[in-house]
Structures are given as C-alpha cells and as structure tokens.
Write a structure and sequence with these properties.
The chain has 154 residues and is an all-alpha fold. 66% of the residues lie in helices and 0% in strands. Helix 2 packs antiparallel against helix 3.
C-alpha cells in the first residue's frame, strides 16, 4: 500500500488519488455495488438500491477529497469518513441479503471487497497517524504571552 506523505504529495501533485491502491480497490467495490444494486428488482427496494450506491460512492469520494488536503491529519479525517461508509455499506448488504433481494454469492463476494477496503483504510489511517511526530510535551497547550502594553500617565 502506498503511504503518501507531505514530501511525496509535493513531488507529484495532490491529485494523485488514482495511484492509491486503496482508492483503486474502493472504486472496484463501487462498480460492483452498482452492478449488484442494478440486479435488485422491484420499486419497494429503490431506497435500498439508492443507499447502497451512495454509501459505496462515498468511500471512494472521501478518499479522493481527503487526498486533496495539504496535511496527513486532514487526509486521515476523510479516510475516517470513508471507513464509516464501509460499515454503512456492509449494513445495507446485510439487509439486502436478509430480504433475499440479492444472491448469497453477490453478498459474500461484495462483503469480501468491503472487508478488504476497510482493512486497507485502517492501515493507511494508522500509518498516517504515526507519520507526524507529536509536539514536545513542553510546547503542547502552551500559550504565547505578549508583553503588557505601556501606559503613560500624561
């Protein structure tokens, strides 16, 4: 898995999300979710189809949006949103399976993709959170004191 840092982002631009393996896996998941959702028949399942595709697209979109930020902390924040969307998507697939709206094969293979993307997101978030060294303890929560203004008694 490619782990970006500030130096690597500066060297080849911020719009390099397509180089991230996690984005490529998430994009493949999105395409598969669209395929599975399109196979669900019946107007009563329209809200479920919509939520499935929206959650899947949110995973990839948050990776893309986060990649555009200038620091690892912001990137990790958007990866957290993508991670939350994997849980939402998993739930929608559980519902679709339990309603027998999708085949077990589609459920199982898509769940494997979701888990794979989730693991990759966890790994990338973990590596990003360890890439920025913490501030020394004596500088954390320290406020800057300004000199008192001079007063004249004239």
């Amino acid at each position: 898995m490619m782990v970006p840092n500030a130096a690597s982002r500066a060297s080849f631009g911020m719009s390099d999300f397509k180089k991230l393996r996690v984005w490529r896996k998430a994009h493949a998941l999105t395409l598969n979710v669209h395929r599975v959702a399109a196979s669900i028949r019946g107007s009563k399942y329209a809200p479920l189809r919509n939520q499935m595709t929206r959650a899947a697209m949110s995973i990839s979109a948050n990776i893309v949006e986060g990649r555009e930020h200038k620091n690892d902390r912001e990137f990790a924040r958007f990866l957290g949103y993508a991670l939350a969307s994997t849980s939402e998507l998993e739930y929608h697939f559980i519902v679709a399976r339990d309603l027998r709206a999708i085949t077990y094969t589609d459920f199982s293979s898509t769940l494997d993709q979701i888990i794979d993307v989730r693991k990759m997101l966890h790994g990338l978030i973990n590596r990003l959170s360890h890439s920025d060294p913490p501030l020394p303890k004596n500088t954390q929560n320290r406020t800057t004191l300004l000199p008192a203004p001079r007063c004249s008694l004239n």
